[in-house]
UniProtKB/TrEMBL annotation:
It catalyses: hydroxyacetone + NADP(+) = methylglyoxal + NADPH + H(+). One of its GO terms (molecular function) is methylglyoxal reductase (NADPH) (acetol producing) activity. Substrate binds at H105. This is Aldo/keto reductase. The lineage of its organism: Bacteria, Pseudomonadati, Bacteroidota, Cytophagia, Cytophagales. PANTHER family: 2,5-DIKETO-D-GLUCONIC ACID REDUCTASE (PTHR43827), NADP-DEPENDENT OXIDOREDUCTASE DOMAIN-CONTAINING PROTEIN (PTHR43827:SF3).
């Protein structure tokens, strides 16, 4: 398993996303993922499954300190009065004293960046989280984030072969930050893609595995594919026994011209 090292953190590059998994399903999938060898688990307040995830970690044979656990503060809890109480609630649901990474899930135009970053730093000072970061922040907002004294380690954003994230990725590289890819298979849209399919056939893999491998071969990139099927857990993590050639990487890089974005809610910021 590839690991990404950043500012003292060592993080398994491939993790489990739990978006859209209700509590019981999140429990089942997280427990199975840990048994399969996953050690990086991602949840969020708005997923309403922190309880299931927490129970699964407790019920597994894996020690809490061996799991890199991420949760995210929802945009409606970013104001000073709501922020820390919401994090305390998350820890309670997750049945843990701390998370490894706490993220701002989405920016909120009603709350200044400086205000929510100050609260995020407070959560870190209190020991509620080891590391901090943001999610869904384009470069313009990242400028504001970095203008505070917050020492973030990642920006979690939509990233897969069908979207163009060149500007953001370059920015993160320049500022020694990682990119955590959510929806790394474009919510299934990579399936049937002729380029990915032909490369997959060469290695006895599928389009999902080729997409994840493409991400794993990039510097400072992590990915958190979500699945609701335990049978997919093994294949999603089974991407470290082959390597894409430079030519194949170039072919996959060409797919970003479609610039397909699968997650774009009404409250999304202006993307780069």
């Amino acid at each position: 398993m590839k690991e990404v090292k950043i500012k003292g953190a060592t993080i398994p590059a491939l993790g489990l996303g739990t978006f859209q998994l209700e509590d019981n399903k999140a429990f089942e999938i997280t427990k199975a993922a840990l048994a399969e060898g996953y050690r990086h688990i991602d949840t969020a307040q708005i997923y309403r499954n922190e309880e299931g995830v927490g129970k699964a970690i407790q019920a597994s044979d894996v020690a809490r300190e061996d799991v890199f656990l991420t949760t995210k503060v929802w945009r409606e809890s970013l104001a000073k009065k709501d922020f820390l109480p919401s994090v305390e609630q998350s820890l309670k649901k997750l049945k843990t004293d701390y998370v490894d990474l706490l993220l701002i899930h989405w920016p909120n135009t009603g709350v200044p960046v400086a205000e929510y970053m100050e609260e995020l730093m407070k959560a870190q000072q209190k020991g509620y989280t080891k590391y901090i970061g943001v999610s869904n922040h384009p470069t313009k907002l990242l400028d504001e984030v970095l203008a505070t004294s917050a020492d973030i380690i990642t920006n979690q954003v939509e990233y897969h072969p069908l979207i163009n994230q060149d500007k953001l990725y370059t920015y993160l590289q320049q500022h020694n930050l990682t990119l955590t890819a959510y929806s790394p298979i474009a919510q299934g849209k990579v399936l049937g893609n002729p380029v990915l399919k032909s490369i997959a056939e060469k290695y006895g893999k599928n389009e999902v595995q080729v997409s994840l491998r493409w991400l794993m071969q990039q510097d400072s990139v992590m990915a958190i594919p979500r699945t609701s099927k335990t049978s997919h857990l093994k294949s999603n993590i089974d991407v470290f026994d082959f390597e894409l050639t430079q030519e194949e990487v170039k072919q996959i890089d060409q797919l970003k011209k479609d610039n397909i974005r699968v997650v774009n809610p009404s409250f999304a910021p202006d993307w780069d």
